[in-house]
Amino acid sequence: MLFAQQRTKIELVSSDRLTVDTKTNVNYVINPVFRQDNATLRSDSAVFYKDRNYFEAFKNVHINQGDTVNIYSDFLNYDGNAKKAHLSSNVKMIDPTSTLTTNILDYNMATRIGEYSTGGKIVNKDVVLTSKRGWYFASSKDAFFRYNVVVVTPQSTIKSDTLRYNTLTNWTYFYGPTNIKGKDDNLYTEDGAYNTKSENAYFGKKNLYTQNTKSLKGDSLYYYGKIGYGKAVKNIVFIDTSDRTLLRGQLGEYYKADERAVVTKNAYFGMGTKDSITVNNKKIPDTLWLGADTLETQKVLQHTLKLLNKPIIQKDNEVGAEDEKAKQEKEKEKVEARKAAAATEAVKKPIVANPDTKKLSKKERKLAEQKAKDLKNNPPPPKLLDSTKVKISTDSLKADSIKAVALASVQNKTIVLSKKDSVKTDKKIAAKSDDKKAISTAVNGVKPKIAGTNPLKKDSVAVFNPADTVRTRVIKAFHNVRVFKSNMQAKADSLFYTAADSTLRWYKNPILWSEGTQQTGDTIHVFFKNDKIHSFQVLQNGFLVNVETDSTKFNQVKGKKITGFFKDGEMRNMYVDGNAESIYYSKDDKGKYDNMNQSVSSRIKFLFKDKELTDILYIKEAEGATNPINKLPKETLLTGFIWKPELRPVSKADIIKGKPAAKVASKTTTTKSAVKVIGRDPSGIKPILPAKKPVVEDPSKGRTTPIKPAVVSPVKVDTTKTKIQSVN
C-alpha cells in the first residue's frame, strides 16, 4: 500500500517517431522507451495516454526492473498510477533464479508480484513447475501454485492441489493432497515440505509411503534423500503385502540402501499365517504377534543366511545309537593311545649293561664294564619302528605317537650327519624338510601320483546362479521379546526370523508356552510350513514344566533336546531326547495326590489328540521310582527348574504394552478322560496336560478371552487297567 500512495509519472525517454493527437492528448509512438521509478519498458509501438498515466504496448514488449527482473510479451497494458502491468501472449518472466512462462500475466511493479490464472510454468535449473493458477514473488523468490500443480525434478514428480516453491532455497511446501512419485516409490501427504536439491523432506499429515509391495504410515515422516535415511514418529505402520508383514511402533528409522527399517517404542510385528481360530462360530486368521524394545526388518540376499531345516526325529529303535557309537569311538581312541604310548617308551628306553656280567671272571667283568662305559659315552642310534609291524591309526593318532615317529627320524638323521663333516648347511635344511614330510605322511598317509595328469585350472568365468540374487525378509528383535499366538506364546531376550526357512529363533533365556506347558532351554526354534506352525525345538538344557491346582507340585521333564510337532495348529506329538528325566504327580480315584513318580530314559514321547495328552511312552533304558505323597524326598525339583507364569503374554495387548502384569492362578479343576501311560513304573505317571482354552481374539468386539497359564486340569489315570510296557 505504501507504493500505491507514492504515485509517479510515466516518462517517455525516447522513440523513433512520435505522433500527438492534440485533441485527446494521446501519443502514438514507434519504438518507445518508457521509464517509471526503477523500471524501463520498451516495445515496437505504443499508444501513450499521458493524462491517464497509462499506455498500451504492442510487439516485442520488454520490462526491466532493477536489472534483476525481465518480462517479455506480445502485448502490454500498463497503469502507471497502480503500477500494474497486464501482459498477454507469449509472456515470459525471467529473474536470476528462474523463468516463468504463461499466456496472461498480471505483474505489480510496486510489490513485484506476478499472477497468472490460465496456466503457467516455472523452470528453475532442473526443476519444472506447472499449474493452472500461480503467483510469483520476485522479492522473496517464492512461487505459490494452485490447482493441478505438477513439479518435475530429476528424482521425482510431485502432483499437488496447493504448493509453494522457493526458487532460491529449492524448498517445496505442500498445503493440500500431494503425491511425490519417485522411480520406484510414492509418497502421499497433505502437509509437508521437500527440498528438490538436497532431497530432504518433512511430512506431517495423513502420510503414506509406498514402494512396490511395501508401505509406511506415520503421523510425522522425515526423509534425507542424499543419504537414503528416513524417520517416522508416532503411530507407525509398516506393511509388506508380499509376505504379509505388519510392523507397528511409535518411533521408526528407515535405511534405503539395504531396505532396513528399525522400530522402537511399543514396537510390535504381525505375521500372517494360514492357521485359524474360531470366534463366535466364525473362523478368523490366527496371526502371530511379536513385540520387543527394538524391532528390525529388511530384505537380504538369501544365500548369505544360514538356513535351518525342519526337525527330523530319529526312529524309536535308533534312539541312543549315536551315543553308543560315540562311546565305542572313545574306547577305541583310548586303546590306540595306549599303543602309541608303548611305542614311545620303546624308542626312549636306555641301553644298559647285562647284569649277568657279575658272574664273569674278574678280567671278563672288567672288559664288560669298560664296554658298558663306552656304550654310555657313545650310545648307538635308537632302533627305528618297523612300519610293517606297528600300525598307527590316523584317526586316533595322538600327539605323543607323532613325537615318537618324528624323534626316531630326527635322531637317526642327526647321527648320520655327525659322521659326515662335509655335509653342507643346505642339506641340513633339506633333512629338516624331510622330517616335516615324514610327520605329514605319518598323519595323512602317502598320496599316490597319477601319471599323465595335471591339476585342473579354475574356470575364470564364474557360473551364474539365479539363487544368488534372491532376496528374503529377515526380522530381528532385541530385548524383552514377546510373542503371542493362540496356540503358542514366548518370551526371550532376542529373536531372529527369516522368511527363507520360516523359522523363529529365540536366544538368551527363552521361554515357550504351548498347550498348557512351559518350556525353557538355551535356544528355541519354532518352524512354520506353508504359513502354518509346523514344529518347535528346544536345544540344550531343555526343560518342560506344568502345574495343577497345587502350585507346589510341579510336573517336570528335562533333556538335551525337546521337539514338538503340530498339525492344523494343534500339538500332535512331542519328544524329549537325551538323558530324559521326569517327575510327575499322580492322583487316586478321588482326585487326591497319591504318588510322585520319577523316571529316566533315553527318550520320553508324548502323544496328543484334540489338545489333550493321550499317551506317554518311555523309550530305551527306562528306569523309575515312586514315592508316596506323604513320604516325598527332600528334593522334588529337577536341576535347572524355572517357573515363570507371570511372564506369559495372554493377549495381543501384552505384546503392545510390554511386560505383562502378574496373573493369579485359578483354583478350578475338571476331570478329563483317562490317559494311557506306557512305562516301566506300574504305579502310573501323571502326564503334562494342555490348557483347555487358548487365548483367542474377537476383532469384531475388541476383546480377548485370556488363558490361565498356571492352571492345568487334572486327569484321572486308572493304573489297574493301563498296560505297562518299556521299549528298549
TrEMBL record:
Residues 366-376 have a biased composition (Basic and acidic residues). Residues 344-387, 689-709 are annotated as: Disordered. It comes from the Bacteria. Signal peptide: none annotated. Residues 8-161 form the Organic solvent tolerance-like N-terminal domain. This is Organic solvent tolerance-like N-terminal domain-containing protein. It comes from Pedobacter planticolens. The lineage of its organism: Bacteria, Pseudomonadati, Bacteroidota, Sphingobacteriia, Sphingobacteriales.
